[in-house]
Each structure stands twice: as structure tokens, then as C-alpha cells.
From TrEMBL, chains A, B:
Protein name, UniProt field: LacI family transcriptional regulator
Origin species: Aureibaculum marinum
Segments forming domain HTH lacI-type: 6-60
Alphabetical list of CDD domains matching this protein: HTH_LacI, PBP1_LacI_sugar_binding-like
SMART domains listed in its UniProt record: HTH_LACI (SM00354)
Keyword Transcription regulation annotated: yes
InterPro entries: HTH_LacI (IPR000843), LacI/GalR-like_sensor (IPR046335), Lambda_DNA-bd_dom_sf (IPR010982), Peripla_BP_I (IPR028082)
GO MF annotation: an example: DNA-binding transcription factor activity
Length: 339, 339
DNA sequence: CTGTTAGCGCGTTCAT
DNA sequence: ATGAACGCGCTAACAG
């Protein structure tokens, strides 16, 4: 920051008027004549004036900015949610600050601190896999910063959430496998602290139940669902000599790890693989043309969550009630062109 | 913003001291006694004081924040660069604001405006495919905001860049195909306004030349390299009845589109496909285990670019000379386990 | 419609 | 070592 010290005072002085008028003109206030407004805008452009949002926001005590916290931006589900958030926020004149926790509680805390210190007007977040204590979240709430969770939400009361019907997703995925003739379906699950994984597991159980297939605990493998976890899971199954003819993975990464490994050792036990993942995910469509996925409507989640958040931001005086919106996922079966 | 109106004045009043002392204590100034410092910090915590970074930054005229502009965060190359940026920035006490232009010039302009208005200390960016006029960039420079480009850079003088040796990447990719026995190699290229695509094309030409393979203009197809472009490219080739036995795609998306389509119509003309893409990209490794990629060291690029930017931010008085750093890409040939 | 005054919350002079 | 006062750049309140 060296050049560009042009302030509204400078341009006021140059025009021999008051800086308030300049401020009003720059904000397109109706309380200033067209003529002077024009004069001011011209002068401003001429002098290379640029508004200092820091000062403006400080004075107004509003930043028109919302913070977004996701585990990883590179995950296609999250980046599609972000797309929805940005579109919606932009239309309402809000800027978006994107942050990633990298699944680490420590970073998540740090991010919330920074966002709060920067006085964002609200926060949208999906919590990390490590997040089992919610002090940092409670603190944010106490500071009066509106908060909406999407997909992964903390297990505390009075929160606003935009969720996916994970029970149905798990049910559909499992049901699909059963309809394909699978009898021994393995489930790769995630940390049980996260409701999304718990719910998918419940859906899995329910689907088995309805088809009179006994639930077997050794078919459930919990991990953090990274690609290498998928590899390890499948290795473990093979080492145990467990019979399985289908896999329902609670996300795509772990499924990919598993499929890669199966390809590598030239074994192809599962008749089909269902993934609770994101259908737009390029991986899913490429890895196996016959792959079935549970489509999570990322863009719509982002849009819905943002709408809800903005509603809370704009009505902070009237104490709005908290809300949980549940969107539906869809099973998408691709054309099996290769086999 | 409703609760939490605790300021340094409040805590000063509570302790019957002056707010200056509080400010100094909170900034761990040596000019305040250990004892009072402790007293103040305790009181601050007790009262739930949170620094207002807007005010602090306004006063200091420094934000300790850098802006990052990329075409799309969902592209694995960019998200890995961002990883490198965040790690490096964090160690130096800087925050990062991530923005995506979605390959649109209009958005790119808008983003730079916002970043400048928010007084970021510097900007790291990779320009969009639409960016052929650089007024917005020149303006940012004129405002004295340090700027470093990575990967995609504008064609103007006196810029700081961290680039990849794309000529060598193109050469290596093509050479690899030739060594596999390909004689008729198609090249999917991008907008020629971007040096990266021009350079990859040059590398392609050079490799042909050294192997005495004649260059044929109809083998070069330029597009914006989205997945559907890859599909269209391959359709075009087939429609023209052009003979080809290899494809060198300037990015991974277009290659994936092409491969998908070839799979779909059960044609398998190319003996191999080389992609200039990112080796960590899950797609590349999954789509075809024998796929060869040109690895771009994203994390290192992010780190290098950030180091360079911070250097410029910190030495704004001493007029540093501009610099272009070129990192090497690597050809990675995977184990051909399937064929 | 425009000017005057005051202050957002903080950090940095000066003093003492 | 601490206090008093000013100002970063902008906008809201109140005049007129």
C-alpha cells in the first residue's frame, strides 16, 4: 500500500464541497442532485479514487461478507455447494470467503476465529471429521453471528441446517445392490460422530431388513473414507476371507480406492458398487461406466443454505426460529455400456 | 452483529486504566509491565473481548491477507496450488482469500475490484481463458498492490511469474507417444492467447521435428478444453476420417471426454494417450491405469509463488525487480497393469 | 439538497 | 510504564 491515498476528503477538497456529499454521491444517495453527483463521480474517476471497504465496513458495522467453511474445496461435492453459495450470495450483493479445515479441528477453530475477527455477517459450514466438541461453534453463536450448517452438522440443539436425506440415500444404494442380486453387501462407513454416516448406515440396515437379509456386523468397516482407507478396507476383507459381492461406500473416495485395488490384483468380486457420492464428480462417471451413484444436489444445497443464512442475517432483530431443511438425494444408474 | 460490543475501552474502563495500555498489552508490547499485561489479558478473556480486525487493519493500513484468484477451485491442479499457498501464507501469519473467476473476464475484474477495496496486501492469480485484455491487471499494479502470477500469466512486461516449463512438458508428452510407436499424433490445444498452450504446442512441434515426423496442421484442435470439448474434438476427427494413433491433450478434462467417447462407441484407436494434467488428479490415475501424465507440481508452485509475493509485500519500499521462476514438470508413466 | 459534527475500534504519536 | 489526544477513511445524525 503506497500510492492511491485518494480519499473522499481529497475529492471533496478538489471540488470545494463537503466530504459527506461525496460519500452520499458515491453511495448513489437520492439526497444529492444529479448534477453534483455526476461531477463527483467524474472527479473520483479522474483522481483514481477507490473506496476503502475497511473503513466503510467499520463504520457501518456490516461487511456484506459471509464465510464458508468446508473440509476440502477439492472435493467435488463441496465445490459444487460453493458454486451454489457464490451464485446466490452474489445476487444479493454479498461476498464470500472460502476456507478449508482440511478435516482438522484445530484449523476449523482457527478459521472461525479469523472470520469472526473480520466481522463476517454470517457463516456457512460443514464440520470436519475431527469435530466432536463444539465449543468454538457455541462461541460463534454467542457472538451473535448467524450460522447455517450444510451436510455435516454438529450434534447440538438450535442450529440451522440444510441436510440431505442420508437415510434414504443409504437405503436406495443398498436396495439397488440387492435388486442386482447382491446378497453379501459390505458397507464402508465414516466416523459415527457424524450423523450423515450414521444415517446412511441406518438406511443400509433398513434395506437389508426389508429384503430379509441378515445384518452382519463384520460387513461394516468404519474409516475416514480417504482413498487409501478404501484400499485398506478391501485388503482387510480379503485377508479375513470374507465373502462379499457388493460394496456400498459412504463416499466416492473410498470406493475408488477399493476399485483401484481390485483392478490391480485383477480380482473383480463385486457385481456392482454403489457410491454415496456426487454424481457430477468426474471420477464416478469415468471409473466405471456402470457405476451407480447417489446424487447429492450440491448446487441446490448451497443455494438453499445461503438463502436461509441471508434470511437470518437480515432479520437479526426479530428472533427467527431455527430450521432444518432436508433435500433429497437421487440414485443415478448409468448405462452399463461395457459389461 | 448485536452482542459482543466489548472494546478495548470497555476493558480499560473496567480496570480503570487507559485504552492505550490495553491496546499495547493485547499486542504484547514490551512497553507494558508483565503484571498489568496479565491482568488485562485475563480481564479481556473474562469479558469475552474479541479484536475488531477491521478497525485494526484500517489503522495499520495492512491486512495481513492475500487474495488468490483461480479459474476454478474444483480443478485439482488449482486446489493443490492453493494448498501450497495456504501452508506458506499461514506460516508467515497471513490469511488467504480464495476467489474463482470461472474462466470469465467479467468475474475476474469484479474479484480484483473487491480484493483491492478490501485492501489485501497482495494478490496471487492465474488468469482466465477469456482474459485477453489486461486493463484490470494494470490498474491493480498501479494501485501498488504486489502481484504474482502462477501458471497462466498475462502477456505484459514487468510481472512476477511462477511458471511451469510447458515447452518441455509438451515435448515430453509427444516424445513419449512417439517412443510408444505413434506416428499420427493429435494435439488438443487451448486458447493461443495463453502462453501455456502455445508453449505446449511448441514442445509438440519440436518433438515431432526431432523424430522427423512431419507436422500436420489438421492434427491441432484448439478449444477451451472442457470435457465436452474433448468429446467434440474426437467426433470431429472421426467425422473427417482422419487417421490418428495417439492423442496429446493439453489438459486432462478434454482427454477424459475423448476417452469416454471412445469407450462409448467401443473404438480404441489410440495406442496411448498422454495428458498434460496433474498427476495427483484422481481422474487421471483411475480412468486408465496405463495413462501417462505430465505432472505439474502444484503444491510447490503455490509455495514458490507465495514466497515471492510475500517478499514483494515486505519490501515495498525497496523497489524489487520483477522475476519469473520456472519449475519443471515431470512425465509420469504408470504401470500398465491392464494391458 | 448540502454542511457540520461526531464517532465506528483501534494503534500511535506525544506527553508525563 | 502509563495516560491523553489524534486520526485511519468513512458514514450517520442532526442541522439548516
Amino acid at each position: 500500500m503506497k500510492a492511491n491515498k485518494v480519499t473522499i476528503h481529497d475529492i471533496a477538497k478538489a471540488l470545494d464541497i463537503n466530504s459527506s456529499t461525496v460519500s452520499r454521491a458515491l453511495n448513489d444517495s437520492p439526497r444529492v442532485t444529479k448534477k453534483t453527483k455526476e461531477k463527483i463521480l467524474n472527479k473520483a474517476k479522474e483522481m483514481g479514487y477507490k473506496r476503502n471497504l475497511l473503513a466503510s465496513n467499520l463504520r457501518k458495522n456490516v461487511t456484506n461478507t459471509i464465510g464458508v467453511v468446508v473440509p476440502r474445496i477439492s472435493r467435488h461435492f463441496f465445490s459444487s455447494v460453493i458454486q451454489g453459495i457464490e451464485e446466490t450470495a452474489y445476487l444479493e450483493g454479498y461476498s464470500v470467503i472460502i476456507c478449508q479445515s482440511l478435516e482438522q479441528l484445530k484449523r476449523e477453530k482457527n478459521i472461525l476465529e479469523t472470520l469472526a475477527a473480520n466481522r463476517v455477517d454470517g457463516v456457512l459450514m460443514s464440520i470436519s471429521m475431527e469435530t466432536t466438541n463444539y465449543n468454538h461453534i457455541q462461541e460463534l453463536k454467542q457472538r451473535g453471528i448467524p450460522l447455517v450448517f450444510f451436510d455435516r452438522h454438529p450434534n447440538i440443539s438450535k442450529t440451522n441446517n440444510v441436510l440431505i436425506n442420508d437415510f434414504k440415500g443409504g437405503f436406495d444404494a443398498t436396495h439397488h445392490l440387492i435388486s442386482k442380486g447382491c446378497k453379501n453387501i459390505v458397507h464402508f462407513s465414516g466416523p459415527q460422530e457424524l450423523a450423515i454416516y450414521k444415517n446412511r448406515l441406518q438406511g443400509y440396515k433398513q434395506a437389508l431388513k426389508e429384503s430379509n437379509i441378515p445384518f452382519r456386523n463384520e460387513y461394516i468397516i468404519s474409516s475416514r473414507l480417504m482413498e487409501h482407507d478404501g484400499v485398506n478396507n478391501i485388503k482387510e476383507l480379503i485377508a479375513k476371507n470374507l465373502i462379499f459381492d457388493g460394496i456400498f461406500s459412504a463416499n466416492d473416495l473410498a470406493a475408488i480406492g477399493a476399485i483401484k485395488y481390485l483392478n490391480e490384483i485383477k480380482v473383480n468380486i463385486p457385481k456392482d458398487v454403489a457410491i454415496v457420492g456426487f454424481s457430477n464428480e468426474p471420477i464416478s462417471t469415468v471409473i466405471n461406466p456402470s457405476l451407480t451413484t447417489i446424487n447429492q444436489p450440491g448446487f441446490e444445497i448451497g443455494k438453499t443454505a445461503t438463502d436461509l443464512l441471508l434470511q437470518h442475517i437480515k432479520n437479526q432483530h426479530t428472533s427467527l426460529t431455527t430450521e432444518t431443511i432436508i433435500l433429497e438425494s437421487n440414485l443415478i444408474e448409468r448405462q452399463s455400456s461395457n459389461r
